Each structure stands twice: as structure tokens, then as C-alpha cells.
Amino acid sequence: MSFSLFDLERIIAQRAGSGDASSWTAKLVGQGIEKAAEKLGEEAVETVIASLARDKDGLRDEAADLLFHLLVVLHMKDVPLEDVIAELDRRTDQSGLAEKVSRSKSETQ
């Protein structure tokens, strides 16, 4: 499998500014960050529901929708996927529990 989230990120960037009336990406971006974030939230809830229903195909499909909408929001807020991956990489340098504690301390400062 050669398709990656980086490929999807590139496709989203191309379609976001295309002005193509048949593009869901262009339409969603045109509706603004509030609508895109709302759609991201809807997809997150649908992903949770599919996981609780033990619907493997549904979970796969909803996870794809969730990742797509997350990448749209990241694009709209000018946050490259590479930065998200770098943050995940940074967090793997320590245990999850230690990372969570360090995040809590920095958020209260």
C-alpha cells in the first residue's frame, strides 16, 4: 500500500483552493473553520459509535472520514501533518504517563 496521510494532505491542499464546485473539500473549506470543526466533531462521534457497535467495516469507514476531516482542519489552521507526526515522535521518547504529567504541568503555567 503506497497511499499515505501525506498524500491525502497534499490532495486536500490542492482541492481546498481549487474553487471546484464538485469538490467536497473546496466546499467545506469555503464554509469556514467553524463548519469544518463541527464536521470533525461529528466524525469523531460516529467513529466512537462504530467502535462501540463492534462494526469493523463501519469503524474503518468512520476512521477514514475522521482522518480526512482532521487533515482538512489542520490545513485550514496551517498546521502541517509533519508537525503532528513530529509531536507524536517527541512524545514516544518518554512513557505515556510521564508525557501526560509533563503536559499537565506546562498547561497550568
The largest sheet is: none
Number of helices: 6
Specify the overall morphology.
globular
Radius of gyration (CA) equals 16 Å
The tally of beta strands, per DSSP, is: 0
**What is the CATH domain class of the largest domain?**
Mainly Alpha
Q: Oligomeric state of the chains? A: single chain
What's the CATH architecture of the largest domain? Orthogonal Bundle
Characterise the protein shown here.
The protein has 109 residues and is mostly helical. It has 2 domains: 1-78, Orthogonal Bundle (Helix Hairpins); 80-109, no CATH class. The chain is built from 6 helices and no strands. It has helices at residues 5-16, 24-30, 33-52, 56-76, 81-91, 96-108. α1 (5-16) packs across α4 and α3 packs antiparallel against α4 (56-76).
List the helices and strands and how they pair.
Elements: H1 5-16, H2 24-30, H3 33-52, H4 56-76, H5 81-91, H6 96-108
Helix pairs in contact: 1-4, 3-4
Spell out the key features of this protein.
0% strand, globular, mainly alpha, 6 helices, Helix Hairpins
Overview in brief:
By secondary structure, the chain is mainly α. 77% of the residues lie in helices and 0% in strands.
